[in-house]
Write a structure and sequence with these properties.
223 residues; six-stranded antiparallel β-sheet; 24% strand; elongated
């Protein structure tokens, strides 16, 4: 008797694909006040370091740290509305609507640019080269987010990578379907993939619905 395939396990739900909310320690937000950076901490749920800011009214908050930020830096000229940021200036941690807090472009090393402006809106280009229109009252951080080189360091041992993937709620390691036995997956077995169609009906059972589900056409495109 084979085990449940990945599609069945994900559909049923289990602790394998859950991430503990306790790993996300702080909320990122902007305030209409100047502040001083008191500390730079690591948040396990993010790829960018987080700066602890103490504002003029005595309250504390958290914002994504930018490249080159250090303790005792001020936020003067760092967090600005889009209307005051010149075009082609690198920005990140952009608000979706005014006073929403940083929403877009918050991961380490991801930088956006203002392409054009008009009286009320501006167009911003993301690292994916896609563009989006924002209100000029939305705020953003000028500069490049820290943590850009986090992917340069290779995994030297299997154990740390296993821990990192499971803390993100990922199934790891992954076994390809063709490498499985015939009882474990429809594509498994030594000769199961030979001259066998990868299309499957929309009404197939969960254990059989793999590959090209209800594909309209298969094969190479005719020229």
């Amino acid at each position: 008797m084979g085990k449940r395939i990945i599609q069945q396990r994900r559909g049923k739900g289990s602790s394998t694909y859950r991430v503990r909310k306790a790993n996300f320690r702080c909320k990122l937000e902007f305030k209409d006040a100047n502040g001083i950076v008191k500390d730079i901490i690591h948040d396990p749920g993010r790829t960018v370091p987080v700066a602890v800011v103490e504002y003029e009214d005595g309250t504390k908050g958290h914002i994504p740290a930018r490249e080159g930020m250090s303790v005792n830096d001020t936020l003067d000229g760092m967090v600005l509305p889009l209307s005051l940021i010149p075009e082609t200036k690198p920005i990140f941690a952009i608000e979706s609507v005014p006073n929403s807090g940083p929403v877009f472009c918050r991961s380490g090393g991801s930088t956006a640019f203002i392409v054009s402006k008009d009286d009320k809106n501006c167009v911003i280009q993301f690292p994916s080269k896609k563009t989006k229109t924002f209100n000029l009252k939305c705020r953003a951080i000028v500069g490049t987010p820290a943590g850009a080189g986090r992917g340069d360091k290779p995994w030297m041992k299997a154990g740390p990578k296993w821990i990192a993937m499971h803390r993100r709620g990922k199934l790891y390691p992954l076994t390809s379907a063709n490498a499985m036995n015939a009882v474990d997956h429809p594509f498994g077995g030594a000769y199961s993939g030979v001259n066998k169609s990868k299309t499957v009906s929309r009404d197939a059972s969960p254990g059989r619905k793999v590959g090209s589900v209800a594909a309209r056409r298969t094969g190479r495109k005719k020229r």
